[in-house]
Amino acid sequence: AYNFCAGPATLPAEVLQQAQEEMLDWRGTGMSVMEMSHRSDEFVAIAQTAEQDLRELAGISDDYAVLFMQGGASSQFATVPLNLMRGKSPADYVNTGIWSKKAIAEARRFGEVNVAASSEEQGFTTVPDQASWKTNPEAAYLHYTPNETIGGLEYDFIPDSGDVPLVADMSSSMLSRPLDISKFGLIYAGAQKNIGPSGLVVVIIRKDLLGHAQSGTPTMLDYKVIADNDSMYNTPATYSWYLAGLVFKWLKAQGGVAAMGEINKRKADKLYGYIDNSDFYANPIEPRFRSWMNVPFTLADDSLNSAFLKGAEERFLLNLKGHRTVGGMRASIYNAMPEAGVDALIDYMKAFEKERAG
Ligand code: PLP
Description:
By secondary structure, this protein is α/β, with parallel strands linked by helices. The chain folds into two domains: 241 residues, Type I PLP-dependent aspartate aminotransferase-like (Major domain) (Aspartate Aminotransferase, domain 2, 3-Layer(aba) Sandwich); 101 residues, Aspartate Aminotransferase, domain 1. A seven-stranded mixed beta sheet has the order 2-10-9-8-5-3-4. A hairpin with a 4-residue loop joins strand 6 and strand 7. The radius of gyration is 21 Å and the shape is globular. The relative contact order is 0.17. The model has no long low-confidence stretch (mean pLDDT 96). It binds pyridoxal-5'-phosphate.
């Protein structure tokens, strides 16, 4: 089976296999990782190795703290303004889709937000040219969503934020290709795409941004408290953290993010290439900004949608239904999706088109 689900949890088959083998007895300890004390030597080693592997994979220097938090990326929509507004306002946000809008709406609960640019009028099919952004040089931070998971829109550049800390919701693009972390003040990523199970959220924060939380910030949402306690202020999501560690090891064995980026580009090029050469399928996004991770597409005739999905399921091509807010289809092709899965999808799309077109 090939699972094109946008989340939660699209883990590599090898990782699931390893987790199954280790589930009841982790390396002769007689315990599942789930049952270990988070303060035990065994678990602390698992946690530290995961962080170290992530640092190596993503090229994260000691100038940054890496936090393993809970509550998904959505909780970060509040945690970011609570910690980074620092009495300053506004915070600048760029609106390129459903996830940006959610981040903006939540941030407005904690301070003033300036929407510096938006592609809403274009139906979120493009990223506004940075020259047109109305950013504020005194802003607390500049927030953007590098990959809009639902719309399938991905920036092909890192915005220049000058001296203002750049904040990115990398939930659906983290570790999909090489990235210059030093350009960012803070990155957060809900784990369930390229990292591990849902619920866990990884935060990479430049250390000078720690310790500025607004008064009244819940302790559990204060980045400094979490950093000072090595992400163990409370009981962390130990099993998810362990699974993320297995994914990082797997990623290293694949050649890291550079190798993964090449594979991901090839997968996306193939699928968009086929869609563009067909009169039967279409993708609305400006080609430059098409997502490597989430590929939405429509059929020429909407009434064939359920037949398309049914035929796909019979071939074990799973979860291709588009997000309920946009309809059509969506193939999420995260790191865990092998190239053979994309080939199998294209073969099916060709066969369906041949059978149904005209
Ligand atoms: N941001 C982006 C870009 C997402 O794709 C998602 C979920 O799919 C979220 C935020 C919300 O993540 P969570 O469900 O972990 O809160």
